[in-house]
Amino acid sequence: MNVPRHIAIIMDGNGRWAAGRKRPRMIGHRAGARAVNICIDFCLERGIQALTLFAFSSENWGRPQEEVSALMKLFLNALEREVVELERRGVRVRFIGERAPFSDAIRQRMAEAEARTAGNDRLHLNVAASYGGRQDIAAAARSLAEDVAAGRLRPEDIDEAAVAARVALADLPPPDLFIRTGGELRVSNFLLWQLAYTELWFTDTLWPEFNAATLQRAIDDYAARERRFGLTAEQLAASAQEPEEQRPA
Ligand code: FPP
Question: Which of 12, 63, 209 for a ligand 1 pocket mutation test, highest count of atoms within 8 Å of Cβ?
């Protein structure tokens, strides 16, 4: 069966889940943290190589101060509680996005979690925090400009591969499957470059209710799709006969 190597998820609907229970939004985020653990367990069991989660967008800083600080506390506690277990289970944790806006305590925990798990590669768990896809592409453009200014790169050598090498998660296969919970049908500035050929899957399920069965449904739908990467079905059938390194990525 065609299993995704890399799954990227926008975990939406925590606030609405809590509101439906007449509880504060933070209760929804806490319930959302449980759904994160379910997904990690699932990916480890199924041998999925990479899981990238949108935990906090660069726009989320604009939420009420109370919610932002409670979320930061939740991230801090989750990092402290889970990192040993993640390390033991072979998970490599990485954060993508801007570090500067986070407190020293959080930045330190992020760096520790990355350092402790740097030698693992059973599952790459990437947490997008203060991340924006446009910001990611702009940073890649800045890095290219710096290389040109320093004489390390010629403008005519700037191609897709040069950009791809400088955006976040450049060392991983791009996401095969993108999932968004909570009913909105948008990509919301997540991994804009990396999602170019990703299969998109949306569900009305609110994130705290997302579980192994929902994830399995997304994976089953993915397996039934034909990914053509701009080619015809006939070309793809022919390329399946060729050695793997000559097939479309
Ligand atoms: C979106 O729901 C969710 C967030 C902004 C936060 C996501 C955080 C978690 C799932 C907590 C744990 C995560 C980690 C990595 C430890 P929303 O608040 O936008 O929901 P709404 O659209 O219903 O208001």
Answer: 12
